[in-house]
Each structure stands twice: as structure tokens, then as C-alpha cells.
Design a protein that fits this description.
This protein folds into two domains: 97 residues, no CATH class; 203 residues, 3-Layer(aba) Sandwich (Rossmann fold). The protein has 316 residues and is α/β, with parallel strands linked by helices. The two termini are 27 Å apart. The chain is built from nine helices and twelve strands. The strands form three sheets. It has a six-stranded parallel sheet with strand order 2-1-3-4-5-6, with helices on one face.
Length: 316
């Protein structure tokens, strides 16, 4: 007997990202559907005929990240639409926004879990699943302090890169030509727009991952990407810079937060002040006994390493 596949017919607002089958293969685009899906970055017109006969509106943000003024504008748009239609926001945002019905759907986590745990390639993955391996965990001494991957040298990312050069570690700056090696190809972390992690040696021989997340400003939205997930699951300490409340959101999501580290800057509303507090914490850590700190966080590291298999997929 042939298995019955559930079909979900939806209509798309013009210019919305059509790649919804990446997150749910049951979606079928149908202009007669009464369920309208809108890419949350689209500027919409409530008088557009696409709203005719619509019973439900769904905003979605599976791929993009926004912050600051842009996210505030998006939230205002969703609230305006909700005054006219039953409206839901399906989002990777870790925060609940008052006045908006939200459903958390963390596509970046699903993508990381799929490729590392179940060997299923996804968006921006090269077509060689061996590039995505969870390396065996170890607590031996390491010669390098940090691993920091960067493909866009601007703003806080450039500042972090410059700051790290005074310490012994691994850092990449793709657009200036400084790259880390990969056995599969010349590694630029992003090869022709694809995400490729560096060799195992860079993870095995360094203690801390420190990077600026894709979204790092403001306090209205927090999204974790591979910059966070794919380092937490590799048996190491992760100290990334993100929006206000980044580490509280990680803890609320079930991840263990390192002990004996000052995270007081995580609640600072001013982005510049928060970033300086972040750098101060990195400096303190890098000038301490990193191996001792690493060992004192053994249970934290093991918990996060095991989350690859214990944290479930998100479903719609």
C-alpha cells in the first residue's frame, strides 16, 4: 500500500522566498489557497489583490536575520496585518514578541542537526557530507587559545579580528585572503556561497570559539546560526557575541552556559558597551589558565556536545 503524503496548499505573497520545501516538503504552492505566506522582509500592501479570500496570514523567517530598526519595522508590519487577519509569525527568533502569535521554528538548528547527526545535506552545504563531522570529544591540552572564523570583515567582526591578533589562536578573514585549511578544497568557510567548516585540527587544538553572530544588535530578536550551533556540538567552549540576552536565550533553549566566566555584559543594552564588555571577558580568559578553565567546564562541554543527539528537530 502506498503511503499517503500530507499536502499543505499555501499561497505566497509576491517576491516572497519560494524555497519553503527546504523546511517542509509537504508545501504546495496554490493560488487558490486561503492561507497566505509572507517572507517577513517583504514590504507589503494590504490592498494588494493577493489578500482576497485569505483566511490566515503566516509570516516566516527561516533564513534571514534582521536587527535594530529593521526588526522593529517588521514587527510593526506583522501587528498591522494581525488587525485585519488571523496572523502567525513562524520564526527562528528565540524571543517572544508581545502582541504577536509566534511559533518557534529554528531552521538553522534543523539544518545543523540534519547534516551532522543524520548526514542530510541542506541549504549552503557542499555536496560532500564528509565535510560535516562531529569530532570525538577530548580534554587534552591544546596549544591554541581560540578558533574564530570570519568571512565578512566589517564593523564588530573586523574589531574582533583585530583584537584577537594579540593572542595565539586560529582566525580567518576570508576577504583579506587569510583562510584556514580544509582537506576537501581550499577553505574560505564560504565557497561560492556555501558553508564549509575547517579541518578537525583547528577544533581539536583550540579551546574557545569566538565569533560575531550574524545578528548581534538590539534586543528584539535573537537567532542562533551555525556560528554557534556547529561549535557547541564540537566539544569546546563557545563565546560568541550576539544581541542583548544572547546567553540567557541559549540557556532557556537548553544549552549549558560555561562556569567561571563573566557574562554580565550580556544584558547591556548599548551595543558598543556590550561589545567592549565581551572583549574584556575574552582578554581575562586568554590571560588565565585556559586548560584549567576548560576542565572546570567538563560537564558543560559534554552536555552541549551531546545536544546534537538529544535536542529534537523543530516541526511546523
Amino acid at each position: 500500500m502506498t503511503a499517503v503524503t500530507t499536502i499543505r496548499k499555501i499561497k505566497l505573497y509576491p517576491d516572497s522566498d519560494p524555497n519553503l520545501k527546504l523546511v517542509d516538503p509537504s508545501f504546495v504552492l496554490d493560488d487558490t489557497s486561503t492561507e497566505l505566506w509572507i517572507d517577513y522582509t517583504i514590504d507589503i500592501d494590504l490592498n494588494h489583490p493577493v489578500f482576497n479570500n485569505i483566511k490566515t496570514v503566516v509570516f516566516y523567517d527561516f533564513f534571514q536575520v534582521e536587527s535594530g530598526f529593521r526588526i522593529n519595522k517588521i514587527i510593526a508590519t506583522i501587528k498591522k496585518v494581525a488587525e485585519n487577519f488571523p496572523t502567525q509569525w513562524i520564526t527562528a527568533n528565540q524571543l517572544e514578541i508581545p502582541g504577536i502569535v509566534t511559533k518557534k521554528f529554528d531552521y538553522p538548528w534543523n539544518r545543523s542537526k540534519a547534516v551532522y547527526a543524520d548526514k542530510l545535506l541542506g541549504w549552503k552545504h557542499i555536496h560532500d557530507v564528509t565535510a560535516y563531522a562531529q569530532h570525538p570529544i577530548h580534554f587534552n591540552s591544546r596549544s591554541k587559545k581560540y578558533l574564530s572564523l570570519c568571512r565578512s570583515s566589517y564593523d564588530y567582526r573586523q574589531s574582533l579580528y583585530n583584537f584577537l591578533q594579540q593572542f595565539d589562536g586560529y582566525s580567518s578573514d576570508v576577504y583579506s585572503g587569510k583562510v584556514l585549511g580544509n582537506d576537501l578544497t581550499v577553505d574560505k568557510n564560504i565557497i561560492d556561497g556555501m558553508h564549509v567548516p575547517p579541518n578537525r585540527e583547528y577544533f581539536d587544538n583550540s579551546y574557545i570559539s569566538c565569533q560575531v553572530e550574524s545578528q548581534y544588535a538590539g534586543n528584539q530578536s535573537i537567532v542562533f546560526t551555525e556560528k554557534t550551533y556547529e561549535h557547541l556540538i564540537q566539544g569546546r567552549l563557545v563565546l560568541n557575541f550576539g544581541p542583548v540576552g544572547f546567553y540567557k536565550a541559549l540557556a532557556d533553549d537548553g544549552w549549558a552556559i560555561p562556569n567561571n566566566i563573566d557574562f554580565s555584559w550580556d544584558t547591556e543594552l548599548n551595543n558598543t558597551t556590550r561589545f567592549q564588555g565581551y572583549l574584556n571577558t575574552l582578554q581575562t580568559i586568554f590571560e588565565s589558565d585556559l586548560h584549567e578553565l576548560f576542565l572546570s567546564n567538563k560537564t558543560v562541554i559534554e552536555h552541549n556536545y551531546n545536544m546534537l543527539h538529544t535536542k529534537p528537530y523543530y516541526t511546523l
